Amino acid sequence: MLKAGINTYRSFLFLLLRSSVYLNCVTNQNYAMFKSYLKIAIRKFRKDAQNSFINLAGLIAGLTSVFIIAAYVKYELSYDKHYTNSSRIYRLVHKKENDGVQTEYTQVPSALGYALQHDIPGIEATTFMNADPVDFFLNAQPVKQECIFADSRFFNIFNLPLKYGNGIHVLQNRNDVVISETMANKFYPGQNPVGKNLTSKDFNGKPIVYSIKGVMYNIPSNTHFKADAVISAPSRDKDLNWRGYRAVTQYIMLNKNISITQIEKKLPVFYTKYNFDQGSALRLQPVTSIHLHSNIPDEHFSNSNISYVYVFFFAALLILLIGCINYINLNTARSLQRVKEIGVRKVIGAKHTQLSVQFIMESTIFFCAALPFSLLAAYILWPLFTRVVNVQVGSGYLIDAGFIFALLGITLAAGVMAGTYAAFFVSRLRPAHILKDWQKSFAVNMAVRKALIVLQFAVSVTLVMATIIVNQQLRLLNNMQLGFNKKQVVMLPNVMFINSPAAFKSTLLQNTHISSVSVASWNAGYGYGGSAASTDPNDSTKNWEFSFIYADEDFFKTMEIKMLEGRPFSAEYTADDIKVDSMIKTAKKQHLSHDEINKIDASRSIIITRTVADLIGLKGPVTGKVLNYSVLRGTVVGEAPDFLGTSLLQKAHAVIMCPAAETRFGNIYIKLSPGNIPQTIGYIHQIWQRFFPDKAFDFVFVEDKLNKLYDEQQRMAAIFNSFASLAIIIALLGLFSLVALTVQQKTKEIGIRKVLGANITDILKLVSKGYLGLILVASAIAVPVAWWGMNSWLQGFNYRVNIHWLTFAIVVASCLFLALASITAQTLKAAKANPVNTLRTD
What we know:
- By secondary structure, the protein is an alpha+beta fold.
- Helices cover 52% and strands 18% of the residues.
- Strands 1, 2, 3, 4, 5, 6, 7, 8, 9, 10, 11 and 12 form a twelve-stranded mixed sheet that branches. Strands 15, 16, 17, 18, 19, 20 and 21 form a seven-stranded mixed sheet that branches.
- A hairpin with a 5-residue loop joins β8 (197-201) and β9.
- The longest helix is centred in the first third of the chain and has 46 residues, at 2-47.
- The N and C termini lie far apart (78 Å).
């Protein structure tokens, strides 16, 4: 028994030793083979340095694009996933359908979430928030800070980490506040501010004292809300009432074992109980989808768009594809020069598998050589890229270990795929064919190379065309006639006057560089100040929706609104200065009849826009007409062009302008004269401090505020500009190298043609006609693809450019010209060479 065990053990050791020797031999063989392949790859690089550098540059550009965009996509997809309970948090969105058009609102009754929690089991917690800046005093000077007003459960749901304090116990009392680490360092540098106070003043100048209950780490940039402080808000409404309520943004958090489907099934009963209007419903939106899947008009904070994320990543992959095509084309073209080497190696015993591995290995080594340069380029360009796309994120998304391993995988996969083509077509050839008539063996090779050139230029031309159309649309949005002049107008937002604004306005006008000042309810780019809806009296299936601007008599002069008909508001007309709302209140106290009150209401002066006239069916001159509808009453004193004061991504609002000579709250608009703008802003700041010493000075140019509405489109244009430039440069560099190899292969043919009388033009035609034909084929493919893609994209805009055929013609002509220039640069040298020298060389 023991002897048998010893024999078995001896046999096992012998097998193990033999296996280890075999594995060692195999390992040594593999190492030697790899070393040989590496030497061949380096020798190839040195022998054809120009084309190798062009190849490497194309790959580095493609890989860098993919690395940067992949990091950006990773960042965009990470929004709101850092909460412990992120998968259970949902925002309440109010959906309302009107005339087949569905509108969504994030502002809902403050009692809605609590009613849901009370009536529907499975909801663990609910909270609400509103965003508004607050001017806190620092060294007796007001400092504006972005704040969120929320209830005590805010930190239970959004468990943002606190540096000081306990998230469960903060925001328990009115005017409790949790401030960010940055704000703490600003107001109480080097201290723990918990227990200390912050002070601001209300609109009437009464001090408000806030008690600091905690310090949170700065809210991560990948969060759909932004704030320097979270302040405890007033209590919610007691009962859910859709007719009158305090509007807030609300969130719910489900129990761990409850699915959103279970909650949604119980909503119809909830709608009935609380008298939801017909066509109204709730959508429970996952908090992790808000940033990329939400563009609701009343959002507190701007979001991105998942479509653009997909487009950017796809464009980056196209850049990598163009770089890979360059490599494949140049590699297979150079393989023609190695074909006899391959034939000899096959004759002396090289196997198909060995040759395939060699080509794939060379390709992979080349791609791996590009990897560190690509990572370095991505790291260097990352700050520039983040500025272009307007995101605040460090390079941590690039240097993360898992991310780098993923990039290595992408690089290896691309290298293997790029090397597979040459490995398949070259290694499969028979030695006899290679050594006798190898040109015929590469007929398929040339066909595939031509197809790849067509694909490469089709992608490049498509990107260039798309870029031009994106920029044309952006120019349209920025330069469209809005019904007013947005240039050189400064806006001071949300100003509350204790008394009449007349003194403030007259003081500003003492500066000769200020031509006009107005106060209006319109908040440029955000909203008009009031809205109302009613049913069309002639068609009960249709609804009217109106937006109201309440403005003083200087609004039309300040915004340079040119009347289509009638007159603007003026202090010269008593009808424009009548306080109709006060008269209606008095009439109600006197118990006047409903008709008499409506008659008073209809006496107010109003100015309608063209859309309003079309909506209510006014024909001919509108001045002097009296409107007496349920939500639209007044005497029309003029008609203005459509006032496009919010995003052009939305349809034109039916805007009605009402006089508000003595308004005490609104946005101040100041028209500046050209020149001395910095000094004029300084003067406005001085006057502001004199009239509003307790409020931080905040201003914005109307033009900048409106242009900011199209940040996503600006971002897309900037990235497309870069990608289109890269694509066409890489494609032209590839063409340059390919033509160089073609000329090199045709050197003797060119020499013979020159001996027979061919001139430089003939030689240029010989080399260029094939390539220019391929670019024309690529353009024929790119034009319909670009037209279809960009036409689909433009459908998302209510105001859009018309795609003109001349755009495509100019792009195609430009690409042909650049390609011809690239071909000419390589061909002239061969065409000017002495044929005696070229024919003498073997």
